[in-house]
Amino acid sequence: MTLPNTNIAGYLNYNYGQSTVQNYDDTKKAHERFQSLLLDLQFLKSCRSKDIIPKFLIFKTANNNLSSSSVYKDCQRRLLNVEINSKYRELNFYKNNYMFFLDELKKTIPENVLQHVSEYIKNRSDAVLFAKEKNLKEKMEAFEIYDDKIYRVDRNIVKNLSSRILTDEEIDCLAHGLDFGLIPKNVDDMDIISNIENFFSRVTDIFENHKKIASELKDNDKFIAADVRVLNTKELSLASSLRSITDSFRSQAHQFEKKQNRITIEQQNYRNILTNLRKDKLITIARPDKGRGIVILNKADYLSKIHTMLNDSSKFQCLTEDPTISRETKLRNLLNRLFNDGHISEAFRNRARSTGSLPGRLYGLPKTHKKDVPLRPVLSAIGTFNYGLAKSLTPILSTIIKKHNTIRDSFSFVKELLALPKSMSKYKMVSFDIASLYTNVPLNETIDIILEHLYDGDITPPVMDRKDMKKLLILATQNSHFLFDGKLYDQIDGVSMGSPLAPLLAEIFLQNFEKKYLSSLETMGIFYWKRFVDDTFVLIDSTSSVKDICNTLSQFHKSIKFTCEEEDRYTNKLPFLDVLVQRKPDEGFHTRIYRKPTFTGHITKWDSFVPKNYKYSALSTMVYRAIKICSSYDLLHRELNSIRSIARRNGYPSSLLNSIIRRQLDLLYTAPKPILPPPLTNDTVVFRVPYFGPLSQIYAKRITSTINKNYPLKQIRVILDVTERIGNSFTLKDPIPENMQSGVVYEATCPDCNMKYIGKTYRHYKTRIHEHLNDQKNDLCLKKIITKPISKKKNKKSILKPIIEQKGPVTRSQT
């Protein structure tokens, strides 16, 4: 039977009755209203993201001066939020109606007829809504926002490689990006208080001052408890001021919390979506290895790919016991011996030793640009037993690094390339890349190179013996264990993944490699050689064979293998780092910005709840790079247009980008400001503030101003913490086992008298429990230990409060 394309209602009435026609009409109206509301929401959200007030929210007041006040503007913004939430409620209502009437149609008409009717309804609504979409676009143009289309998220940045079928709402939510800031739902008072208390102690150096006061009291046969701090008059006055300012901020933050909980239905929808995705244990959500975006994988596939890598017995070994404490103790004993022998300073020992260290945690990032989507292993080594040692050795090893054949960044590369004589442009461009550099650096050979430079070179050797330095280097780069999927592994080959020394060791090895073989490069036809880590830009004789040169370089050392890429034979273009270089023989080189195929165009969204300076930096950084890298005005003009397109797709007002471009160009062509003398002190103190909008910035300014009056030599660095992001809902790292947690607050309760003892320790929880168990021998016995946590803080090192039941009194011991 041929289905009609016009009189659908008549066809349904003739074949299925009047009730079916009524369901058809209801379905059609609900669908059209639903699609119309979607356009309304996109328009209103676009207005909100660009801080534009629609005309229907411009109202008159008795006092005309009020229209320019902040209260009037705030009222308009709140009304806009209320209107958006109202549209969301109406949208959900008509969506449910549409699904209901569609289900009713399914009961009365066949599947093929239903499909035909659905397509007809969709096509008809598209035609009807086209005029509305055009009208909304004209409204935007009337606001002088030169957008090509109404701002909406780009669903293409979400790569779903899992078996789960995502809804449009889930894709739209994830398409905002893992870094998208959500409006905080709750105010964490303890976080605010602990931040200001820690900041106060750092600014006043209260612990150092306390030692002096305690020593003076001890000389006078007076003592104070170890957990009591004595403040002088200046410190008491500062503490009072900081408390008053912080209490005011907390009050404002709670008012912000109440207001947002009333008007942010959209954000609540996001949270519900993220909660449902997080509960699905069959999928893993991660960022891609290259570019910005979101990748959804089957959890089984993710684990299988990592386990396949870990099953390589030549590189990894599965451990049956946790070596964290034993390795931490070994390092501490070595540092104490070196300190007692006078070979290291107290500051070095304190930086290098660890207390309550954790195993590293391995995870993988999907390489979506490669076949079968392999995973790049990433090891989070922060907090491991040798992380502080590696950071402490960095200044010592940095003295070995020379800058002869290396480039610092893209800017220095372009500057040096454009300064070359034009005659150099007759040579062919090639880039060489070292395959898997970090995992192939020969560790023992590199350590020998370091020791030779430190003890046999021209520089003054370290105070410590050569063999002790070698022990420190081995401890810092080997013996690194990590956690994955609940199991512990040891890396038994190569430089430890995630070690802060890995880039430095690779650079030292490569510089030694170049020192040995650079003299033979010219005989191979190489006339220019500049390297950035493992990528090298080379100019060679046009008659030389690139493959022969690559093979020769790969034969110099068994651990280093090179790959190569030649310039395009037709355009003479070659990408290097983020620069696209074009060679024009005997005329010189031209450079412009290069973006890899993995670039998604995704940056911080304009409507992301993050500080405005973060968004400003997202654009100003791109503009600055364009000005510094583009070698001609024509190339710069093209790049600025590309940046405009990226900004529009992410919801940024055109006026903001234009102002940034003007400012950057003004800075380029204005005389540089005189160089200010360096500050009298480099003592910088970090102050972390949870971000609740402008009130957090005002709070930070008030605190900074107060500190500057009392401690003018202190440099304050404010960090506005975005407490809730989309990415916070998903983690790839294993949780640390409870007994290996450090920074623990625990409670001991006497079962006989119900008295409680609350203790804390910066060491491992199981170490402190073991000490309590040893107290049993002295009749300070613990009857039972319960490791149930009382509370945990998200996104930070978890602070557990295990309940410890005890028998008899327990005195506080040193932790």
TrEMBL record:
SUPFAM superfamilies reported in the protein's UniProt record: DNA/RNA polymerases
Domain Reverse transcriptase residue range list: 346-604
CDD domains: RT_like
InterPro entries the UniProt entry points to: DNA/RNA_pol_sf, HTH_animal, RT_dom
PROSITE patterns: RT_POL
Designated name of the protein: Reverse transcriptase domain-containing protein
Origin species: Adineta steineri
